[in-house]
Amino acid sequence: MFSSILPGTATPNSGRSASPSHDMTSEQSRPAHPAPTTRRRRIVVAMTGATGALLGIKVLIALRRLNVETHLVLSKWAEATIKYETDYHPSNVRALADHVHNINDMAAPISSGSFRADGMIVVPCSMKTLAAIHSGFCDDLISRTADVMLKERRRLVLVARETPLSEIHLRNMLEVTRAGAVIFPPVPAFYIKAAGVDELIDQSVGRMLDLFDLDTGDFERWNGWEK
Questions:
Q1: Is the pLDDT of residue 26 over 90?
Q2: What's the confidence (pLDDT) of residue 38?
Q3: Would you say 88 is a known binding-site residue?
Q4: Which residues contact 43 (CB under 8 A, 6 or more apart)?
Q5: Does 42 belong to an annotated binding site?
Q6: pLDDT tens, position by position, 66-113
Q7: pTM for this predicted structure
Q8: Where are the strands (E) in the chain, listed by range?
Q9: What pLDDT does 227 receive?
């Protein structure tokens, strides 16, 4: 009787290993992805030479208390204004931040869109810096990082300090607003009936950080007319 399988014909299992390890799917053989880790929120704080240095200092203090990772950039004139307007030295202000970057270091991490940041606040923001951001003239780390925030569609708050405002200032503010930035003039809220300048500053700082969904708890919010 002839065999039912002709000579030279492959059997159904020929060329295959009987080992079950070769039957594992590619998904089973891949290493498991590590569980994502939760990072601290991260905000860039830039200070320019406009008046109002205490606003930037108070922002840094509030962010430290809220456990937000801060990346600070000081301009040369910001350092001069800090010494003139406050009892702080620039070294004391740098100590309030988690990371400090030189304004001329265009290779700093914050100069790249691949650096994960939750936003940036320029406080106070001079009209020179506003003009640089509007034109996209990235000649220092402040204007470059602000440009990154706009192109990556991240929150950019400019605490503009100037009065009165010229048509040039207003046009620059309009254009950066259209590009996605928020112009925040630190206008005092007289309705809080502040006992002094510090309370007015705390209210302004609190409203600035509201824009990043951060609550300082340092000021009284409007709840309607008090009876």
A1: no
A2: 81
A3: no
A4: 63, 68, 69, 70, 71, 117, 118, 119, 120, 121, 212
A5: no
A6: 999 999 999 999 999 999 999 999 999 999 999 999 999 999 999 999
A7: 0.83
A8: 42-47, 69-74, 99-101, 120-125, 156-160, 182-183
A9: 67
Q: Is the pLDDT of residue 27 over 60?
A: no
> Is position 49 annotated in a ligand binding site?
yes
Q: What is the mean pLDDT of residues 30-57?
A: 86
Question: Which CATH topology does 42-164+181-211 take?
Answer: Rossmann fold (3.40.50)
* 161 is known to lie in a ligand binding site: yes
What is the Cα–Cα distance from 183 to 185, expressed in whole angstroms?
Answer: 6
Instruction: Tell whether the model's pLDDT for residue 7 goes beyond 70.
Output: no
Q: Is 204 annotated as a binding residue?
A: no
Q: Residue 56 corresponds to which tokens in the numbers above?
A: 């930037």
CB neighbour class for 21 (10 Å; exposed up to 12, middle 13-18, buried from 19)? exposed
Please indicate if the annotation marks 127 as binding a ligand: yes
Domain boundaries, the chain: 42-164+181-211
Residue 49: count of CB within 10 angstroms of its CB: 20
Chain position carrying tokens 């299992």: 13
Query: Is 191 annotated as a binding-site member?
Result: yes
- What tokens were used for 204? 């302004």
Q: Give the dihedral sign, CA 76/171/186/66.
A: negative
11 annotated as ligand-binding:
no
